[in-house]
Amino acid sequence: MSGTTLTLGEMALAQKVVFEEYDLNNGLHVILHHDASAPVVITSVMYHVGAKDENPDRTGFAHFFEHLLFEGTENIKRGEWFKIVTSNGGTNNANTTDDRTYYYEIFPSNNLELGLWMESERMLHPIINQIGVDTQNEVVKEEKRTSYDNRPYGNILAAVKENMFKNHPYRWTTIGSMEHIDAATLEEFQEFNKKFYLPNNAVLVVAGDFEEKQTKEWIQKYFGSIQKGVIAPKKTYSEEPITQTIKATYEDPNIQIPMLIASYRTPSMKSRDARVLDLISSYLSDGKSSRLYKKVVDDKKMALQIGAVGFSQEDYGMYIVYGLPMADFSIDDILVEIDEEITKIQTDLISEKDYQKLQNKFDNNFVNSNATIEGIANNLASYYLLYKDINLINTEIELYHSITREEIREVARKYLNPNQRLLLDYIPAKSHN
């Protein structure tokens, strides 16, 4: 008897995410995804505001709001938000990037109305007052200390960004500057809210186990009356191409071992080239089976660690390769090895076997990213808001499948040259005593 087994790729295509989308009169985009496999439902709202929408003298605002908007609303008393969620069997969270801010609650399905009401409260009339600002100021400062300033290698991204971008607001980090937050007036926070937290600058996703007719009635009831606002057009910033190596140094008082960082600027995550670079990044530097790890850490034992992070965003991205040299080796020794591997990709086609392994890995990631209700809700919101193509939730994997080995070589030649990068010496701070 012959059975057929689906490859991961076919599985990914078979696993279609079905959704419905429509707009309210105030411009709020609504996406519904029904899945009754578990008795839970997620309500999430993504706003098209991130660190890149901030005034350069007021960085950190978008992330500050991610905290501030849990403070309370006209109908949810200060300090009650989390209590309401947990006492009703739910969990909630939020996160901010340079491009967007995302809030969500996950409740047992019988509490969907509560989730919708809470998110509409946050959008309609949050209370932004001095006590809330002062409280969250302390919370954010503590986050900056523990996650960035006092953590070994905690300011890599800050150091890379300020050297990679001259005009674009990507030059600062989402946590921003505490001096800017301290200097801001209450009115400035209130203005930021009025400017960006608008129904027509957001997408609402409901995913999970719900009854459709009732859900649409609730969405209309809680969100329908919120006034549409005027969205300031997004500013566009262009960066001159990097044509000669940028050299920079950053001193970190929390480290003993210098780190090599090579960073290349890459195009918008919406572009085909960005997806080719995802494959290249994975091949070169994703995990212990990657080319660089096997060679530099396992075989030659030149580095304690080597890796890379692809930082894909709405306007530009970065491909950041980093390495920690072993005692007998220098940063330069490691750079030679990295460049050798990049040159190989630019010269020869990667093997069929490696290509297939890459495709399998991406199929796997794709299946996993849609394996949970949270993953699906996040993907639906992102593809709609940032990519302007919601159906990528089902078709993006086909784009990866269509990338050829020749294209991988071509894109490596186009973006990953020594004169197109930042070389950052991330070193222990010299003691000044």
Automatic annotation (TrEMBL):
User: Peptidase M16 C-terminal domain spans which residues?
Assistant: 184-361
A GO term, aspect molecular function? metal ion binding
- What UniProt keywords are attached to this protein's entry? Hydrolase, Metalloprotease, Protease, Zinc
Query: Pfam families attached here?
Result: Peptidase_M16, Peptidase_M16_C
Q: Where would I find the Peptidase M16 N-terminal domain in this sequence?
A: 30-174
Gene3D superfamilies given in the database record: Metalloenzyme, LuxS/M16 peptidase-like
GO BP terms in the entry: proteolysis
Entry annotated with the keyword Protease: yes
List, alphabetically, the SUPFAM superfamilies matched: LuxS/MPP-like metallohydrolase
What family does the entry list?
Answer: Belongs to the peptidase M16 family.
Q: What is this protein called?
A: Peptidase M16
